[in-house]
Amino acid sequence: MEFVDNLPPMDLMRSEKMTFVQLIIPVESAHRAISYLGELGLLQFRDLNADKSPFQRTFVNQVKRCGEMSRKLRFFKDQISKAGLGSSAQPVSQPDIELEELEIQLAEHENELIEMNSNSEKLRQSYNELLEFKMVLQKASGFLVSSKSHAVGEERELDENVYSNDDYVETASLLEQEMRPGPSNQSGLRFISGIICKSKVLRFERILFRATRGNMLFNQAPADENIMDPVSSEMVEKTVFVVFFSGEQAKTKILKICEAFGANCYPVPEDITKQRQITREVSSHLSELEATLDAGIHHRNKALTSFGFHLTKWMIMVRREKAVYDTLNMLNFDVTKKCLVGEGWCPIFAKAQIQEVLQRATFDSNSQVGIIFHVMDAVESPPTYFRTNHFTNPFQEIVDAYGIARYQEANPAVYTVITFPFLFAVMFGDWGHGICLLLGALVLIARESKLSSQKLGSFMEMLFGGRYILLLMAIFSIYCGLIYNEFFSIPYHIFGGSAYKCRDTTCSDSHTAGLVKYRDPYPFGVDPSWRGSRSELPFLNSLKMKMSILLGVAQMNLGIILSYFNARFFHSSLDIRYQFVPQMIFLNGLFGYLSLLIVIKWCTGSQADLYHVMIYMFLSPTDDLGENQLFWGQRPLQIMLLLLAIIAVPWMLFPKPFILKKLHSERFQGRTYGILGTSEMDLDVEPDSARQHHEEFNFSEVFVHQMIHSIEFVLGAVSNTASYLRLWALSLAHSELSTVFYEKVLLLAWGYDNIVIRLVGLTVFAFATAFILLMMESLSAFLHALRLHWVEFQNKFYHGDGYKFRPFSFASLADDED
Q1: Where does this protein have coiled-coil stretches (predicted)?
Q2: Which of these, 422, 337, 321, lies nearest to 32 by C-alpha position?
Q3: What is the pLDDT of residues 717-775, one digit of tens each?
Q4: How many whole angstroms separate alpha carbon 232 and alpha carbon 255?
Q5: How many Å is the maximal CA-CA distance in the chain?
Q6: 455: exposed, middle or buried (C-beta count within 10 Å: 0-12, 13-18, 19+)?
């Protein structure tokens, strides 16, 4: 055991040692000190004002000002993106600007931009009205007839088309009156012309018809140009309309309906000369307005471009200032109101760096009083912090998704780096598919610097984040594919010739009577001759099923061994004696023994039925094994292992709660002071140690918890071992699916002497391989490997009830501006 204790600490095995510190910062250097700590990013502050609302805190006004500046900067960013200019990714060099000066500048720029937008909107509104008026004049003139000769022609056409329809009697009479100038004026026939959105025309016409009870004539024509909406800057399709009606009441109704539908009405004279004169005037105004609009847009874009050069730098600056004041709000004033007091967690290795940063802040702020930094003892458990890199971070994220490690407990991510991609590959094993995954992973890694600076979609971001997981999964898939001897389900003689041959030269009975072994076994992996033989499926099923059990028992044993190292690290001898030992005995007495039988059967070539051996080990342990005996002394060994497994259950259940009760009663009576907490000597050795919370001991609660834990382990030993059979099931499914696509799609298409059929078959095979085998099957294998780690492996030792170390850091500030 001394050898184990003297081993150097493994990176990532335990979280970084943390210490609880207190800062006493003079007010004049507080802002600079917090800014420097944000750049360092190794101190997590504790909120000392958690009982106060955000509006009751000291620096609430500064936070509000920063929030207002953020709003203005977001407004500028939106305006730049609407104008299609884009902010500069590389901010130009500019002398540092103070926050107060920036606030004044932003207010001026915002007022200037709002005024420009308002003027531009008014001009655009006027331009739109004139453009609509021009289009109404052009289109409405076609509906209005002033010459008598034209009226006669229209009347003849009316006689042929409209009068023949009995349903349009009133409409026809209105049109007839409109085409006869004399009588129409006397009868009071009028018209309203205007323009409306194309999407509203049908409803508009229907409402008009109902409101006037059919006593109107509605003419429409599509506008020649789309109109820009000044608010949304989108182009809108419009339709010109002319409504003929009679009577003042009808006019009031029609105008109200036009107003309700957002239709713009324009007066159109019946006289063609007046129409032409007005059209010329409108066109002249339009050209003037267009020139004014272009000049305004150019001026606005120039102003926005000048903002864009500094926008990124300003946004970073304001975001940092807001984060600094938010952090200052977590600090308290001391009694004299001249110093701010802060508390927080930092890694022990970072103490020297933090002290150096604080000294620099004192010097730069010209403070007469230095910042006091000292270590304190804390009641609560420290946060968990692992130093990861690009390679180890995605594996740590997989573990953290289940639960953050308790402070200093064994970290499953150390083993997940290898076991996760390996178990994935056991289910996905095909070196052809593995090469495809490898190429994808290498592309992501090769373009790492470029992709890391881009904004990716959710799927691509997830794929890019797990690029190293994908790389290892691909490498292990190639390895397992070589073991299974499958390249897109096709076996190859890579490592030499087969160990089997046909019984005769014709090979007529190779699929019925089978092959004959004539030399040493195939050197690496599955012999290619198993492919297509009559015993292929039973052989591969037996191989993969037994292999799954061996891998599962090995990984579960690793989990229990890690629980031993946890108990040893936390000096919990109770957990070693009454959890680790009986758990090892129970698991290996049953399933460790099954694994031993599998290995012996493989080595000896025995025909023993392992199902029979394991079932009758429980039902009839004293019966003679007969032909199922694999080695001498098997029956007494089985009886001994069964008894040990039975003894292990109460061993897990009863001693620990009663011993805890005894220890508590002794502590209560004052006979055992050594257990009560850490002494001063301990604090000198481990300044990060926390005082233990001794709550009232509840024996029934402890006993029920231990009973649940014991029952869960006993039942879990069976169910978890069976759960590892998913390795066999998914490997078989992947292999069979791959075979079906190869034989029933590619080979079937290749059997035709037609290039089109062959190309179709090849395309279907390629799509099936890419989308079903490479995407869906890889996702399925990934999720099953994830479950095996979270449930079957981690529940043996991993509590996962800690909380993450979240230091105040400018680097971790979110990029979004919400």
Answers
A1: 92-126
A2: 321
A3: 999 999 999 999 999 999 999 999 998 899 898 888 889 999 999 999 999 999 999 99
A4: 26
A5: 127
A6: exposed
Q: Are strands 332-333 and 516-517 parallel, antiparallel or unpaired?
A: unpaired
Please tell me the distance from the alpha carbon of residue 694 to that of residue 697, in angstroms, as a whole number.
Answer: 8
Quickly list DSSP for 13-69.
TSPPPEEEEEEEEEHHHHHHHHHHHHHH---EEE-TTTTS-GGGSTTHHHHHHHHHH
Tens digits of residue pLDDT in 619-665: 888 888 888 888 888 899 999 999 999 999 999 999 999 999 888 88
**Does the pTM of the predicted model rise above 0.85?**
no
Q: DSSP E strands: which ranges in 569-675?
A: none
Question: Could you give the 3-state DSSP secondary structure of residue 516?
Answer: strand
Residues 6+ apart with CB under 8 A from 144: 191, 242, 268, 270
Closest CA to 797 of 587, 549, 651: 587
416: enclosing H helix or E strand: helix 413-428
Cα dihedral sign, 714-719-723-728: positive
User: Which two tokens mark 774?
Assistant: 């490479």
CA–CA separation, 274 and 272 (whole Å): 5
Residue type, position 284, single letter? S
For residues 477 and 231, what is the distance between their CA atoms, to the nearest angstrom? 56
Phi, psi (degrees; rounded to nearest 5) at 25: -115, 125
